[in-house]
Amino acid sequence: NTITTGVENELQPGKACTVWIVAIDQAGNISDVTEQEFITTKAMPKVETLPTVSGVYGNKISELQIAQNGVAKYGDTVVPGTWTLTDTRDTVLPVGTTKTVEVTFTPDESLQDQYESIKLNVVPTIQKRKITIRVENMKSTYGNPLPGINEILFKIDDTTPLVNLDTKETIQKTLQLTGNWGQEQYPSAGNWGFAVSSNSANYDVTVK
Known about the structure:
Layout: E1 2-7, E2 16-24, E3 34-39, E4 46-49, E5 52-56, E6 65-68, E7 71-74, E8 77-78, E9 81-85, E10 101-107, E11 118-122, E12 125-127, E13 129-135, E14 154-156, H1 168-172, E15 175-179, E16 194-198, E17 203-207
Parallel strand pairs: 5-12, 13-17
Antiparallel strand pairs: 1-2, 2-3, 4-7, 5-6, 7-8, 9-10, 10-11, 13-14, 15-16
């Protein structure tokens, strides 16, 4: 005996389909046609290109932004939709983090009966937070060693406050001092210039 089936239309994700079935015995007798209707399951798109997530140090994870959309495909077809940060954590990530955040791809409304949404994890790009510090002039008495980095007096500009419970000491530890007196520990009396810089991992420090 032989059973023959046919499909009314080419199968598509999330679509109604009809299958017809007939049986043929060895004598060639054909049974009545039986029809069966069903709806195919939604298709799962594949992420071809990850979205880009970015923020500035001090932003909570929930405050990060989608900087560039990704690309989702089903087969060779690009599935249009929306990329959304769906991670609600209030954690602050450092610059250069390797931790991931949750992003969700949602197909366009007209395609949501055909394609599933996708949740994925993306490593965000965290930029340094810009701050400005104002360094005071230093004084020393001839015969005494010049002040070192620990003696530098500075203030953080009110318009660029620190974040994430960081303190002035956090910045102090990153400062570096360069003076134009060379290697002299006890230079002669006069005015000597110096420069202050910072190697902070999370702050882009402008010194004034």
